[in-house]
Specification:
about 325 residues; alpha+beta; 3-stranded antiparallel β-sheet
Length: about 325
């Protein structure tokens, strides 16, 4: 092997060659910062002895941190409560403090104003309606009509379901099964029904029952839950039924109504599009108590007892008499 060294380098002394870089080409390495190593064993000078350590303590911060630790130990950060402004009693700007009764009256008025937004949204129409009812009562001399007496003596509850994704025909078959049955019997019928929509009717009937109990006080029964002596009643269809609790709820009416419908496209071959109709239906349930059926049964019996006896040849006057025969 042969080493290629410039002739000018051969003529230089060896020490000078060591001090110079071994390569004559440009070195493109990045510059690396160097830190000087401090000597911890160096002697301290007089300047170092005269320097004082910096005081970085903050008494306000230390006091705040100490109070925060104590508050956390006690169980919570104390919050300053807003205090009402105080003025001397002799000042002309001071206000008299309301009494306890005045504060309660003010709170009741505020509650009534807030509740009136929902309970009485149109007071003018309400006053006109009340005036109309008073005039009607004066004209009738306080006498009530038969429907008004029934509304005051008998309780009922109406429930309407949201729209269901089914047709009127399918829902009518299920609703007709529960009409005329007690609530418990209707729930049993819906629970074991094979119809898909029967589960929605089951949930709706449960909601209707709960609303009737909570809102109307229906179906509470006797105080101790004891069943009384059975009473035989006659239904509209002529069947007999024994009633043990006159407050037991039953489904008086159940009907179905059409709802909204949506349209969606069905894309077919050759660019044809069929529009599909998605129907929706709702059902309504009217719940009443067995006391209503007992009253209807008594009315049927009285009507049967008061009807006239049928006779084959009734005694009635002869009409259209002529002097001669008409044949």
């Amino acid at each position: 092997m042969s080493i290629r060294i410039p002739s000018r380098r051969l003529g230089q002394p060896a020490l000078k060659a060591l001090r110079q870089p071994s390569s004559t080409h440009w070195n493109s390495t990045s510059h690396i910062t160097r830190r000087h190593i401090s000597n911890p064993f160096r002697r301290k000078t007089d300047e170092d002895a005269n320097q004082k350590p910096l005081d970085i303590s903050n008494p306000l911060l230390e006091k705040y941190l100490e109070s925060k630790k104590q508050a956390e130990k006690k169980g919570g950060t104390p919050r300053p409560e807003p205090q009402p402004p105080t003025l001397p009693s002799k000042s002309i700007f001071s206000m008299e403090k309301p009494s306890k009764q005045e504060e309660e009256d003010m709170q009741e008025r505020q509650d009534a104003e807030l509740m009136a937004l929902k309970l009485d949204p149109d007071p003018a129409s309400r006053r006109r309606w009340e005036r109309k009812m008073v005039i009607r009562g004066v004209r009738r001399r306080g006498r009530l009509t038969a429907p008004q007496k029934l509304m005051r003596t008998e309780r009922q509850s109406l429930y309407k379901s949201p729209f269901l994704a089914t047709s009127v025909k399918k829902l009518t078959k299920v609703v007709n099964q529960i009409a005329g049955k007690t609530v418990e019997e209707a729930l049993v019928q819906l629970r074991f029904s094979k119809k898909k929509v029967a589960q929605d009717v089951f949930k709706g009937l449960e909601i209707a029952r709960d609303e009737a109990i909570a809102g109307r006080g229906m179906g509470l029964g006797a105080r101790n839950g004891e069943k009384g002596k059975g009473t035989e009643i006659e239904l509209n269809n002529g069947k007999k039924k024994i009633v043990h609790d006159q407050m037991e709820m039953y489904v008086d009416q159940a009907w179905v109504g059409k709802g909204e419908y949506d349209m969606s496209p069905e894309y077919r071959a050759r660019g044809r599009v069929n529009m599909l109709t998605h129907k929706s239906t709702s059902f309504s349930i009217l719940l009443k108590e067995e006391a209503t059926r007992m009253r209807i049964s008594d009315e049927i019996k009285k009507k049967r007892e008061n009807r006239k006896l049928w006779v084959a040849l009734p005694d009635r006057p002869i009409t259209a008499q002529r002097q001669y025969c008409l044949w």
